[in-house]
Design brief:
15-stranded mixed sheet, 2 helices, 8% helix
């Protein structure tokens, strides 16, 4: 249950786009190097919303002899008191263009109660060179193709934050692709207007976005799976609420450091 919760959380965080938004409209950045967002993950256990893990999103500049990249890092860790029940130490990373957020490398290193899953993608346009590990087995190499404009969960999140969501109108919908576990997943996203939400940043106006995955048992019904993004220049995801077959939960922003605006 908890593993599904963490995975779905990252998927929801990263799949938000609308029919009124065009890729070429990418404009000023909503974030900068050094930003650090911290979330508290909670799960509904026997009718009680119980906090069990922390999720951190960080950005940093990485320079090589030829190029500069933005390093996007996401971690998910259960709190110590829950480790005996189910220990999670998950890491997701992407190295992207600091200007267009185009991904060049994606990495995943998960340890979930001793189960190891590792992945590395090297993007070559719509082609991906991947290396992956399952359990204690050795590395396996596999090349595969993705549809145009498909991104991993990390680079998608930050790319979306740069798009002019304010242009969307209530009822706008958009199908969106994301690559995860070397498979492309399709989602339908619906703009549901705005709502004032009580957050660590204060009572702020937020974009309200419904999310549902196609051909999946998870995330059915846009009204049950909601992403709230601050309706300002930073476009910070402040709250996620969703229902999955094994229960419900939420991810709530508890700290925001070094925002651009």
């Amino acid at each position: 249950m908890i593993v599904q919760f963490i995975k779905i959380t990252f998927i929801i965080l990263s799949i938000t786009s609308f029919s009124t938004i065009k890729a070429q409209e990418l404009s000023s950045k909503s974030f900068k190097s050094g930003e650090h967002l911290t979330y508290q993950a909670s799960y509904n256990m026997s009718g009680v919303l119980t906090t069990f893990a922390q999720v951190d999103l960080k950005t940093a500049t990485v320079k090589t002899s030829k190029n500069s990249y933005l390093h996007l890092k996401c971690t998910a860790n259960t709190y110590t008191k829950w480790d005996n029940f189910f220990k999670i130490r998950d890491l997701y990373e992407a190295y992207v263009s600091p200007y267009t957020v185009t991904p060049y490398i994606y990495k995943r290193d998960n340890n979930e109660n001793g189960t190891i899953r590792k992945e590395k993608y090297i993007y070559k346009g719509q082609n991906i060179k991947s290396t992956f590990v399952r359990g204690r087995s050795g590395e396996i190499k596999e090349n595969f193709t993705i549809p145009a404009n498909t991104r991993d969960i990390v680079s998608t999140l930050y790319y979306i934050r740069n798009l002019p969501i304010s242009n969307a109108k209530a009822g706008d919908q958009k199908d969106f692709n994301i690559v995860f576990d070397r498979k492309t997943k399709s989602a339908t996203l619906s703009f549901m207007g705005t709502e004032t939400v009580n957050t660590i940043l204060g009572n702020i106006k937020c974009y309200k976005i419904g999310v549902s995955l196609k051909k999946e048992n998870l995330l059915k019904g846009k009204a049950n799976n909601i992403l709230y993004i601050s309706a300002d220049k930073n476009k910070v995801p402040v709250l996620i609420k969703f229902n999955i077959p094994v229960g419900s939960g939420q991810l709530k922003l508890i700290k925001a450091q070094n925002l651009k605006y």
